[in-house]
# Entry
Amino acid sequence: MIIKQLRLSRCISQEQLAQMSGLSVRTVQRVESGHSPSLETLKCLASALDTDVSTLNQEKIMIDKNSESWRKMPAGLKWLFTMNFF
# Structure
């Protein structure tokens, strides 16, 4: 899930997200660490982050920056990955 990335891109702390969503800080921490949230928790987080549940369910793409694929990638695309646009 990309909840942590969305939260950080909005410059929101875990405490602020918890308050905005009506969830506990511990729940936010659990979700960000990989525990499976309930649909109700996802709805609360989606509302607080002004997005939809399907967006929250997206996985973060990881690329090995030492790989040949990374070296051959255009600079603009590398920048987008570095800025977490994907």
